[in-house]
Amino acid sequence: MKRSLFVRLTVALALVLSIVGVACTAAPKVPGAITDDLGRSVVIDAVPQRIVSLAPSNTELLFYLGLGDKVVGVDSYSDYPEAAKAIPKVGGLYDPDIEKMVSLRPDLVVVTKGHEKQVIPALEQLGIKVVALWARDLDGVLADVKLLGDITGESKRAGQLVDTLRKRIKAVSDKTKGLSDSQRPRVLFVVWYDPIYVTGKQTVGDDIVIKAGGINIASGLDASLPLSLEKVVESDPQVIVASVGDVGSEILPFQWAKTEPRLANVAARKVAPPRIFPAGDIYQRPTPRAVDALEELAKYLHPELF
Amino acid sequence: MSADASSGHPNTSVQRATPMLSLRWRGRTWALAGLGIALAVVVILTAAIGSAHISVGTVYRVLVDQLPFVNMTPDWEANIETIVLDIRLPRIILAALVGASLGMAGATYQGLFRNPLADPYLIGVAQGAALGAVVGFTLPAGVLAIGLGVIPALAFFGALIAALAAYLLARVGRSVPVTTLILAGVALGAFLASITSYLIMASGDMVRGVVSWLLGGFALSDWRQVKVLLPYSLVGMAVICLYARPLNVMQLDDEQAQQLGINVERTKLILLSAATLITAAAVSFSGTIGFVGIIVPHAVRMIWGPDHRFLLPLSALAGAIFLTLADALVRGIGALSGAGSEVPVGVITAFLGAPFFLYLLRQKKKAVF
Fold first, then answer.
1. Angle, helix A204-211 to helix A289-301, in steps of 10 degrees
2. Contact of A226 with A197, CB cutoff 8 Å
3. How many Cβ atoms sit within 10 Å of the Cβ of residue B148?
4. Measuring CA to CA, which of A112, B20, B229, B344 is 20 to 30 A from B259?
5. For residue A269, what is the nearest residue in chain B, using CA coordinates?
6. A225 touches chain B (CB under 8 A)
7. Please, which residues 266-305 of chain B have a Cβ atom closer than 8 Å to chain A?
8. Nearest CA among B109, B122, B163 for reference residue B298
9. What span, in angstroms and rounded, lies between the C-alpha atoms of A185 and A91?
């Protein structure tokens, strides 16, 4: 009797466990504890169903993973893809409307660098899960796709997308990595002109320029500090990549690079036509479209290779 | 002779100075000459400072080559010439002009308002300029692209409109009491600043440009800006210097000055207009650089006395030297940092100007008590 009860209990337990096991493999895997790009440890105990994005790049990544229908709120700069524009806005990058966000009942808010002082603590205080993405190069973008895939139960899909992106990046860098320094044009990537900001170390733009077969003159510089005009002229860039953005006044850096009289004797301006390359938002945003940018710039810098 | 005539020819008293005063006269005349020479020296010396690595010798050969009848065979690249002649030189000259304008405008305001706290930004000029500039930053690219001078123009008109509004608001009947003008200026300034703050918040990704304009600097100064600013500054400063003597008399009070034959309201209006004009013109290109306009006139007054006939030009010269040195320091820091990134000049003027001023204040205290 005793033994038979034990057997029956064991069988029952085994049955229950196997059902749970089957259920677990069928349902999306709950990711558990993850570490985000700011080094924060976050426990994701359920697959998020209502997501708010606080950066255009985050919004793009979510849509890229096919999670557009789970995004219930975005910051007002999120303009890609087209469908993102129809999603309720929760305010600007650094001054989001917390009340509006709470009213959307998100179970995950995806933030970025710059949100750690005020926005992240405020959201955590309200018991909302927060994950920060902050890619500083193309590998970082791939890692973000993977991380976001893990969090949202789309690991497999994310893995496939990452593989495709990695192959495309490799196809470009395989052709450019054999170039000697003298074959690589000296590039300056101007993000803003008054004062002059350039893409320095730890930016996606820097990685794009290098992988596309250029030398980023500002590679070692801190991108958050302005650069003097003297230094720009002295560095004598052979190609100026200038931001045109996709909206508003962001086209001005490109116009400045073309018309500033004091750049007239710089190598990029002395050739005809001038080697000034208009760079849209995709050259700065840490998103999969940065790989499009890489392919485009590589073709411009080295038409002989592509 | 009418009361107006005396204020129209205020510069005739040099010969009438008493022998006892003449010693002080000589000292202050020497001070004028000395500061003038010092300014020239500072301008030439600081041309060697910058983030681009150009040897001092090359800098001066490029400069000497520009002198008439000097023809050197250039052993430098075209870009070096661009850096020295079209980046550094206009920047230094503009800093000197802006410093002179702010120094003299500050001395004028302090005299007019008989208030040691007065500075060129007292009646809303800075806040008006800032609002104009920030509005410029929020304009769509299409408008801005017409010319890169939209923001300075908006800043200039913002400054003038703000000052005019403060003046009209403060007018009581036919006169403008200085205390009322200060209060109107402060209130109007706060009102405009609130709009500016909101626009900055709303400007999003333009915020870097806005903040850097507000802190002030000469990073992108070119000769066009010097050409635009020069006539305003020279005419404005000349007018102010012509009214130095009435300004001395007005230190008593409005009523006594009136009895001594000064057309107080007219003089006030002319001096206010001239000082506001040179401030607005200076600020529109360089941003609202603080502390020059308040500290320089005080320092000059502490050293060479309160006579406006000297205080005004000496403040202009001292302001020019101070701001030229401050901007040279900005460039020096940029060079040392290796990256060529620059601290806003407004940060330097406050950081160095305020302690120097406090030092003078302490010295003065010891001497008096």
1. 40
2. yes
3. 18
4. B20
5. B79
6. yes
7. none
8. B109
9. 41
A63 inside 8 A of chain B by CB: no
Query: Kindly report the CA angle at B348 between A95 and B362, in degrees rounded to 5?
Result: 120
Minimum-distance CB partner of A255 among B50, B145, B342: B145
Q: Do A194 and B144 touch (CB under 8 A)?
A: no
Contact assignment for B141 to A249 by CB distance below 8 Å: yes
Mean pLDDT, 10 residues at a time, chain B of 369 residues: 42 48 75 94 92 88 87 84 92 96 95 86 90 84 61 91 93 86 92 91 72 83 90 95 92 82 88 94 89 91 90 96 94 78 84 83 59
Q: Do B83 and A261 touch (CB under 8 A)?
A: no
Residue entry with tokens 């000055």: B257
Residues of B in contact with A265 (CB under 8 A): 77-79, 82
Rounded to the nearest angstrom, the minimum Cα separation between A216 and chain B is: 14
Q: Amino acid identity, residue A208?
A: I
CA Rg value for chain B: 21
pLDDT in tens, B230-264: 999 999 999 999 999 999 988 887 788 888 888 88
- What are the CA-CA distances from residue A198 to residues A11, A191, B43 (Å)? 67, 5, 30
Q: Is the pTM of this model over 0.95?
A: no
d(CA B233, CA B220) in angstroms, rounded, equals 20
Contact residues, A window 231-290, toward B, CB-based 8 Å cutoff: 231, 233-234, 236, 248-252, 255-256, 261-262, 264-266
The tokens describing B253, both together, are: 């009070």
List chain A residues with CB under 8 Å of B221: none
3-state helix/strand/coil string of B35-96: HHHHHHHHHHHHCCCCCCCCCHHHHHHHHHHCCCCCCCCCCCCHHHHHHHHHHHHHHHHHHH
Whether A85 has its CB under 8 Å from any CB of chain B: the answer is no
Distance CA B250, CA B265 (A): 11
The one-letter amino acid at A152: T
| Residue of A75, A112, A234 for testing the chain B interface, max B β-carbons within 10 Å | A234
Backbone angles phi, psi at A74, to 5 degrees: -140, 160
Nearest to B158 by CA among B282, B280, B269: B280
Provide the pLDDT confidence category of residue A19 given band limits of 50, 70 and 90. low
Does B224 reach chain A within 8 Å, measured CB to CB?
no
Rounded to two decimals, the ipTM of the complex is 0.75
Q: What is the 3-state secondary structure of chain A?
A: CHHHHHHHHHHHHHHHHHHHHHHHHHCCCCCEEEECCCCCEEEECCCCCCEEECCHHHHHHHHHCCCHHHEEEECCCCCCCHHHHHCCECECCCCECHHHHHHCCCCEEEECCCCCCCHHHHHHHCCCCEEECCCCCHHHHHHHHHHHHHHCCCHHHHHHHHHHHHHHHHHHHHHHCCCCHHHCCEEEEEEEECCEEECCCCCHHHHHHHHCCCEECCCCCCCCCCECHHHHHHHCCCEEEEECCCCHHHHHHHHHHHHCHHHCCCHHHHCCCCCEEEECHHHCCCCCHHHHHHHHHHHHHCCCCC
In angstroms and rounded to an integer, the radius of gyration of the C-alpha atoms of chain A is 24
Question: In this complex, is the C-beta atom of B230 within 8 Å of any C-beta atom belonging to chain A?
Answer: no
- Point out the residue among B137, B140, B334 whose CB comes nearest to the CB of A228: B334
Cα separation of A22 and A30, whole Å?
14
B52: nearest CB among A92, A233, A251:
A233
Look up residue A129 and give its two tokens. 């899960």
